[in-house]
Amino acid sequence: MMTEISLNVLDIANNSIRAGAGLIEITVQIQRDRDALTIIITDDGCGMTPEQLKSVEDPFFTTRTTRRIGLGVPFFKMAALSTEGSFKIDSTPGSGTTITAVFGLTHIDRMPLGDMNSTIHTLITLNTHIDFLYTYSFDGNQFTLDTREFRQVLGDVPLNSPEVSAYIKEYLTENQNEADGGYHI
Ligand SMILES: Nc1ncnc2c1ncn2[C@@H]1O[C@H](COP(=O)(O)OP(=O)(O)OP(=O)(O)O)[C@@H](O)[C@H]1O
Ligand SMILES: [Mg+2]
């Protein structure tokens, strides 16, 4: 079983990639005054019909042919609900999907956030044809990483070239530090 929220996010974003998304938006929002850690993942992929949506939270539903049981979504839901949080999926066939999970920030059963920067870095450098908009917000201090902006500056240099890959890593680390002062989540 997954032990970090960042690994859940990697799995949920991989669903978006399999759904043919061109843009994936990932938001991580920490609000200490609300005791909340909110994760929002939005894609412009194929979406799901109401019937699919109903069964997607059931572990015995999957459209994969290699393996019968899909566990990514049910696990993420269970992880959020077990912290007295909430979970919701909004999806429209042909236009995309949004998954919102709220965790009780200080709830004893909340998994650690884990290395979200590695998740974002991995997603970007392994899927250079997809755009990512990452937003990290800590008590209202926030930063974003938008691969569309990076592309404008980079021109033909790919996002997975060694220099750019290293730069993305640094960008994430430095900006997160600036936003949360190294607070352990
Ligand atoms: N963003 C999405 N867009 C369209 N369909 C989705 C999306 N997320 C999930 N689905 C559908 O829901 C199913 C279940 O997803 P889930 O992550 O729970 O399992 P899985 O991806 O099939 O397997 P696993 O994550 O365990 O490798 C997927 O197979 C897919 O059909
Ligand atoms: Mg999955």
Secondary structure topology:
Elements: H1 5-18, E1 23-31, E2 36-43, H2 50-56, H3 72-81, E3 86-92, E4 96-104, H4 116-126, E5 131-138, E6 141-146, H5 147-154, H6 162-180
Parallel strand pairs: 1-5
Antiparallel strand pairs: 1-2, 2-4, 3-4, 5-6
Helix pairs in contact: 1-3, 1-4, 4-6
This protein binds adenosine-5'-triphosphate (ATP) and magnesium ion.
User: Which molecules are bound in this entry?
Assistant: adenosine-5'-triphosphate, magnesium ion
Question: What is the name of the CATH superfamily?
Answer: Histidine kinase-like ATPase, C-terminal domain
Mean pLDDT: 94
Order of helices and strands: HEEHHEEHEEHH
Strand order of the main beta sheet, please?
3-4-2-1-5-6
CATH architecture: 2-Layer Sandwich
The stretches of 5 or more residues where confidence is low (pLDDT under 50) are none
What oligomeric state do the depicted chains represent?
single chain
Helix content: 25-40%
Approximate shape: globular
Number of H- or I-type helical stretches: 6
- Total beta-strand segments: 6
* CATH topological fold name: Heat Shock Protein 90
**CA-CA gap between termini:** 20 Å
Whole-number radius of gyration?
16 Å
Q: Mind telling me the CATH class?
A: Alpha Beta
What proportion of the residues form beta strands (DSSP E)? 25-35%
